[in-house]
Fold this sequence. Notes:
This protein is of the alpha+beta class. It contains 7 helices and 15 strands.
Amino acid sequence: MSTLEQNAxxxxxxxxxxxxxxxxxxxxxxxPDVPYGxxxxxxxxxxxxxxxxxxxxxxxxxxxxxxxxPPMAPATTKSERTQPPxxxxxxxxxxxxxxxxxxxxxxxxxxxxxxxQGGSRTTHHVDGMLDALRYDADERPRLVHxxxxxxxxxxLLARTRQAAQTLSQSFQGRTVEKVYWALVMGLPEIASxxxxxxxxxxxxxxxxxxxxxxxxxxxETDYRIVDHAASRVAWxxxxxxxxxxxxxxxxxxxxxxxILGDGKYGGRESFFVGLxxxxxLHAHYLALPxxxxxxxxxxxxxxxxxxxESWKFLGFDPKDx
Length: 321
């Protein structure tokens, strides 16, 4: 449970990284010790509210909304020992992906295809395996942001409640620098710039997609061309200034340069002969204030084997990034 005053009502703002997440999943992310039954009761009785109004567990949140949190006492928590055990194979694999660790945070290089959190059709995910990254700590690591299932790269975890609270505040503000690498179809007309296109979600579960619309939420991405293979493929550095669902994928598509392997936003044409049929989007770099104070924390995740082969196939050198 987060470091809340146990007998006081508190309010928390929804961060950019929590945009479009369901209420029940928001609680699971930030307060993993609160049982679902307790949350359902709080929602039913109006003790948990969003922007002053009552909501259901399935309602999706938007960045900037305010969540009312009731007093939380020890009686509302459940033992972390109820977490299902992590298989030896999964534990070893997850530990092999650790790229930074100290007493306060852990960073892993998340592989493409592994979801960060579970859902109705997702039972294998990072959140369900975090006991494998407990090491010698008394507490189970906590998620403080997320990456899409098909995106690889830096995923940061908090090792203590205090670190989770501090990191969450950093992600809520604009103190986190995020850099993604992407291979895209074609060559953008302008070498660098900003894509400013509001996005709104369309479609139901499993068919979710975002599109540009004046009624959508503001979405802004800075980009620059790092290298290109003639006019066929470009390597872009992407710096999202907001955190909308599928923002980078949609913005690249709107620019006329869908990400390689992104069938949802680029169609069949996004699959390049000779390259893996996967999304070529990688969370390369993350920088933010260290939760224990002191110098700025900077973490870079190297490309995985498949992406290295794609970069090599196109004549790109990751060192140039």
